[in-house]
Write a structure and sequence with these properties.
This protein is 51% helix and 7% strand. The chain is of the alpha+beta class. The protein folds into two domains: 84 residues, Glutaredoxin (3-Layer(aba) Sandwich), CATH 3.40.30; 111 residues, Up-down Bundle (Glutathione S-transferase Yfyf (Class Pi), Chain A, domain 2), CATH 1.20.1050.10. It has a four-stranded mixed β-sheet with strand order 2-1-3-4. Helix 1 runs antiparallel to helix 7. The structure holds glutathione. The site of glutathione (GSH) has 11 residues, from helix 3.
Length: 224
C-alpha cells in the first residue's frame, strides 16, 4: 500500500477489517481499479463512532466517497463497493463476463455457501437443531463441487480470464480451505486449489493484506 497523499477531490474512506472476506473483496476491487482511499482498520467489537454515524448497520466494509462534502455517498455492501470500483475503472474487463452466470455464482456463495461455511468454521456457535442433522463441510462441498467442475474446464470461474465472480468468491473459499487446510490440500479439489493459489499469490491480493493497527480519530492517514 502506498502512503503518498491522496488528492483532496478524489478522496474516499474505507472502513475495513483485514480478515473479513467481504472487506477483502472490496479492497481487491478498489486496488485493481486503482482507486486510492484512506484505509481505516476497524475492530469489530469496538467500531468507531465515525463509521456508525455513516452506516448504522455496523458491518464492514463501508466506503465513504467524497467524505464531508455535500456530495458524500456511502456504500456499505461489499458487492456494491466492488461494482462501484469497476464502474470507475475496469482495465481487464472483469465486468465483461456473463452477468447471469456471475450473479448466480455469487448469490450461491453469499447466500448458501456462507451459511454453511460459518457452521463449518465455528461449530460451537450453533446449536444442534440449527445444523438439522447436516454435516456443514458436506453442505459446503456442494458449492465446491460446482466450482471444481467449472475450474477443471477453464482457468477461471466464468470466463477465460479472471472476472468479478473469482474475486467475489475467492475470500470465502480461502476461509473454507483454512478451516482444515490439510484436508483441503489432500487432493479433493485440485482445480479449486490451483485457482486459489494463483489468487493467494497475486499482487492485488497480497498488497491488500498488510497489517495495520486499529484506526482512531486523529491518526495519520493509511492509504490503500
Ligand atoms: N453483506 C455485507 C456483510 C458484511 C459483514 O457481515 N461483515 C462482517 C465482518 S466479516 C461484519 O462486519 N460483522 C459485524 C460484526 O461482527 O459486528 C457485505 O457484503 O458487506
Amino acid at each position: 500500500m502506498s502512503q503518498d497523499p491522496i488528492p483532496e477531490d478524489s478522496r474516499s474512506l474505507l472502513y475495513s477489517f483485514r480478515r473479513c472476506p467481504y472487506a477483502m473483496r472490496a479492497r481487491m476491487a478498489l486496488r485493481y481499479a486503482g482507486i486510492r482511499c484512506e484505509l481505516r482498520e476497524v475492530i469489530l467489537r469496538d467500531k468507531p463512532e465515525a463509521m456508525l454515524n455513516v452506516s448504522q448497520k455496523g458491518t464492514v466494509p463501508v466506503l465513504v466517497i467524497r467524505p464531508g462534502t455535500a456530495e458524500q455517498e456511502v456504500i456499505d455492501e461489499s458487492l456494491d463497493i466492488m461494482l462501484w470500483a469497476l464502474a470507475q475503472n475496469d482495465p481487464d474487463g472483469w465486468l465483461a463476463a456473463d452477468p447471469a452466470e456471475t450473479n448466480q455464482l455469487i448469490l450461491a456463495s453469499d447466500d448458501d455457501f456462507k451459511v454453511w461455511l460459518d457452521r463449518y468454521k465455528y461449530p460451537d456457535r450453533y446449536a444442534a437443531e440449527e445444523l438439522a442433522g447436516s454435516n456443514p463441510r458436506d453442505e459446503c462441498c456442494r458449492f465446491l463441487d460446482v466450482l471444481e467442475s467449472r475450474l477443471a474446464a477453464q482457468p477461471w470461474l466464468v470466463a477465460g480470464s479472471l472476472t468479478l465472480a473469482d474475486v467475489a468468491i475467492f475470500p470465502f473459499v480461502r476461509q473454507f480451505a483454512h478451516t482444515d487446510i490439510d484436508w483441503f490440500r489432500g487432493g479433493v479439489y485440485p482445480a479449486v486449489c490451483a485457482w486459489m493459489d494463483v489468487l493467494l499469490e497475486s499482487e492485488f491480493f497480497t498488497s491488500v493484506m498488510a497489517k495495520y493497527p486499529a484506526w482512531a480519530p486523529g491518526d495519520e492517514v493509511t492509504v490503500l
